Task: structure prediction
Amino acid sequence: MNAANSMNPPTVSIIVATFNAEATLERCLKSIFAQTSPHWELLVVDGGSSDRTVEIISANVDRIAYWHSKPDAGIYDAWNQALGQARGDYVCFLGADDALMDDGSLQVLLDAAQESQCDLISAKGLLVDERLRPCGVIGAPWDYRGLRRRMRICHPGAVFRRELFRTFGNFDSRYRIVADYDWLLRLPESTTSRFVDRIVTMVGHAGVSRKQVWRRLRERRQAHARCRRIGPALSYVYWLDKLLRMPIARLFGLQY
Result:
């Protein structure tokens, strides 16, 4: 899989899905517009918001490569629609309640992409609550084998070669919470990666995956069962292991 060559800096399509996101969207957009790197395009797909979200998008239309507002089947359906419009060498997904950590965050990721020519580049994310109070740090290097047990990379802010979606398909919109994890499980062992040991994204900690723990676990088991290298039997082993670990994780304030 060929990346942009060393003479041409790689470009990234930043995809943001929104729905009634007026409380956080401006912060997200401002963090993107503040980036020192010019090698990005922004795509915003709104699910038919009834608050001020569309007004906020419209006010920034001159800096948005593509946007629309119409009902969709959830965040992963919105991401898939945006992927059809993306033109960057890489793709980056941000939630409307996420933000790039500082004005150099994108440059760090694109520098790593240009140097390494890798399929994916990930970094760390700072979890924050509704008041932007820190709740912890997530993100570790890509681990093909370890992914069967846990999604270690910080997905918001990571950059993925766009060609990966042409090769391995888009997100499965049957899932409401774990389609990003399901997609990562499709990637082969030959996937090349680089980890940037730096916080590049501020990640909203109040999203649906945090609130709907039981649905997340159920969807995760389904994704495992459909994965050829895991299968139905082992999916229940991992599901039970996760259930047993949850009380311990809660006790010590760990992510589960």
About this structure: The mean pLDDT is 92. The longest strand covers residues 193-204.
